[in-house]
Amino acid sequence: MRIATRESPLAMWQAEHVQSLLASYVQTPQIVPMVSSGDVDMRPIDGKRSVGVFTKRIQQALLEDEGDVAVHSMKDLPTEVHPSLVMIASPERENVADSLVSPQAYSLDQLPKGAKVGTGSRRRAAQLLRERPDLDVQPIRGNVQTRLKKMTDGEYDAIVLASAGIERLKMSDLPRVELPLEIMLPAPGQGALAIEVRSDDSSAMEIVSKINLPESNACTLAERTLLSQLHGGCLAPIAALAVIDNQGILRLSARVLSLEGTTCLEYTTEQAIKTDDDSWRSTAIELGKRASATLIDQGARELIEAGR
After folding, report:
1. What is the per-residue pLDDT across 132-142, written as a single tens digit (0 to 9) for each?
2. Which CATH number does the domain housing residue 280 bear?
3. What is the 3-class SS of 41-65, one letter each residue?
4. Catalytic (active site) residue 278
């Protein structure tokens, strides 16, 4: 079994993690690194070049039989489903939070007035500006190591990184402060992996489905359904987090913002869910549609269009 992945350090960690999970079911899965357009083109991601810049090359590898399994960061995977591919598994989700990284380990309140903060995400930028409109939030591209070097070289006073990526790369000594979810709600699918196979590869489907965790899949499906219904893509300032509590309640919180963070629409909804049968899928989709419909009524579509 061949595992197609981007070759950045974080993507390789993710592929090796999936490799170790699959090793219980298939002999010696092989990792096949690829270079995506998003890895070589360092221009800021905008409305003209956004959806799928990190995933298309990996999906192409499956379609052209260069690999059997594709491993993506869930938040990078387009919500539009490819007719020849199926997202068959999402293993256990990791930390969903974002971290503010700076040489002084500043909290958001401690950042000096007008501090230059780097992020490649409009969602993060809008939520930062909602709390601290004085900040100079600027685009930044590159893998985690590249972004950190830009900060230590003085190009930025601080940067925002996904906590899951920092933890996966074992950067425990990085000076950082985790941003509270009330301030920085994550991207749909953040902290989760998405594993795709060809829809006609029944053998791969059977094996890879064994490492799926319904709880992780249900939560990210609710978030991605919301994103899809809003037609937001991975660019718009849309944040969402679904969790299942120990009473079996799936709760989805969502936020749509203007680019400057001056307008913020929020909505939370919940529903009982069963993850021990296949009904979790329809429950998650229903919850995502309900949340998106309410946000659309509040004016979410207009906010999203204004930011394109």
Report:
1. 999 999 999 88
2. 3.30.160.40
3. CCCCCECCECCCCCCHHHHHHHHCC
4. no
Nearest alpha-carbon partner for 162 in 76, 258, 243, 232: 76
76, 98, 157, 201: which one is catalytic?
76
Q: In total, how many domains does the chain have?
A: 3
- Name beta bridge partners: 253: 241, 268
Q: Establish if 79 belongs to a structural domain.
A: yes
**What residue numbers bound the domain in which 233 lies?**
213-308
Residue 114 exposure: Cα atoms within 13 Å on the Cβ side: 0
Residue 154: phi and psi, rounded to 5, are 95, 5
Q: Tell me the H-state helices in 153-278.
A: 163-168, 202-208, 214-229
Nearest to 177 by CA among 94, 108, 95: 108
Phi and psi dihedrals of 161, rounded to 5?
-130, 150
Q: Match 């061949």 to its residue by tokens.
A: 2
> Is the confidence at residue 200, as pLDDT, over 80?
yes
In this structure, the answer to whether residues 135 and 220 fall within a common structural domain is: no
- How does residue 90 score in pLDDT terms, banded at 50, 70 and 90? very high
pLDDT of 212 strictly over 70: yes
CA-to-CA distance for 43 and 14, rounded, in angstroms? 25
Q: What is the pLDDT of residues 58-88, one digit of tens each?
A: 999 999 999 999 999 999 888 888 999 999 9
Q: Residues 16, 241, 258, 296: is their CA dihedral positive or negative?
A: positive
Residues 64 and 207 in one domain: yes
Q: Tell me, yes or no, whether 63 and 146 share the same domain.
A: no
